[in-house]
Amino acid sequence: MKRDFTNIIFRTALLSTLIAALTGLSGCRMGPNDYSCYHDIDPDGWRYGDTLRYSFDPRDSLITGDIVLSLRHTNDYIYSNIFLEVIVADSLGSRCDTLAVTLADDFGRWYGRGIGTDYQVSDTVARRVTLRRPVSIGVRHIMRDEVLADIEQVGISFVETFSK
User: Fold this and answer.
1) Which of 66, 86, 116, 159 is deepest in the core (most CB within 10 A)?
2) CA 90 to CA 126: how far, in whole Å?
3) In 10 A of CB 67, how many CB atoms?
């Protein structure tokens, strides 16, 4: 009898955990106008003139949301920051911004999260920006190095926001 009771408690706990996990994951679904894409950087380095291009065609013709840039680098990256030029273009025109992303504190401790010797940092490029389709975003580094080593990936995400 005690063994059956323990088995019932175990199954109930397992079922409760599974339901909680599925409920949590259902909120992680991307919206119809959301977009996310990463580009791998050449292992030989990111050349000064190489612009990474991201293009998406949202379902709605007019969208408002946040643009977020994510950057993955290794522990061997020699700077504590990176300067980027971000060009956002849609059917109405384009705008260019310079973004300074801080990667480490004054003591050289990396910000962001990482596994092993890789770290990822995200920074918001623009909040509540309104875009008309189609949308393209270009990113290039504007550091003084001709070839920037130890940057592994650069990603762009657009998350639609809804007015209340």
Assistant:
1) 86
2) 14
3) 22
Beta bridge partners of 157: 36, 68
3-state SS, residue 139:
strand
What b/e string do you get for 83-100 counting C-beta neighbours within 10 Å, with b at 16 or more? ebebebbbeeeeeeeebe
Confidence (pTM): 0.76
pLDDT averaged over 10-residue windows placed end to end, the chain, 164 residues: 58 51 46 85 95 92 93 95 96 93 94 88 93 94 96 95 68
Largest CA distance in the chain: 74
Q: How far apart are CA 28 and CA 41, in angstroms?
A: 27
Place of tokens 């004054």: 106
Residue 155 one-letter amino acid: G
